[in-house]
Structure formats: structure tokens, C-alpha cells
Design brief:
The protein has 87 residues and is an all-alpha fold. It has one domain. It has four helices and no strands. Helix 1 crosses helix 3. The longest helix has 22 residues. The radius of gyration is 14 Å and the shape is elongated. It starts with a helix and ends with a helix. 16% of the residues are buried.
């Protein structure tokens, strides 16, 4: 359990720093603990883990934008604004 907790803290700090550097505004996804468990099980690299976090951010932001009625180019720009240049 201690190993997972340490990895979680490291991952959280890594994500926060990466998000600050990328200009993203989406924040840390609520499913971060599940992503950490998956990363440990799959032996992901830090880069693969951050990519997974960005994908979850895109999905979450897209769902919120669609609920607001955004479509097409508006939806694309909205997601791009909140996730930043992380592709």
C-alpha cells in the first residue's frame, strides 16, 4: 500500500507541474487514483501516464461542453482551451 501511495503523490506532483507548464486549465481528473493503479499494473512510463491523464481530461471536458450544447468548431475550441496544447 505504501508503494501505491508514494507513486500517487509523485504522480500528482508530476501532473500538476506538467499542467502548469502546458497552460492547461482542466485540472487533475477525479479518477487519478484509478489511473495510478492502472499505471502500476501496466508498468507505464511517466510519459504514458501523463498521456492517459490528458485523454481523461479531454473526455471530461468534452462531456461537459456537449452538455452545454457546444458542437463542431465551438466544441473543439472549448476543449482545446481547457486542456491546453497537450496533443
Amino acid at each position: 500500500m505504501q508503494q501505491k501511495y508514494d507513486w500517487y503523490e509523485f504522480s500528482r506532483e508530476l501532473c500538476e507541474q506538467n499542467l502548469k507548464n502546458s497552460g492547461a486549465r482542466a485540472g487533475i481528473p477525479h479518477c487519478l487514483p484509478q489511473l495510478v493503479t492502472m499505471a502500476i499494473g501496466m508498468k507505464m512510463t511517466q510519459e504514458e501516464f501523463l498521456r492517459a491523464v490528458r485523454i481523461v481530461q479531454c473526455i471530461n471536458i468534452t462531456a461537459k461542453a456537449r452538455a452545454e450544447g457546444l458542437r463542431g468548431a465551438e466544441l473543439y475550441l472549448f476543449v482545446r482551451y481547457f486542456v491546453g496544447k497537450t496533443s
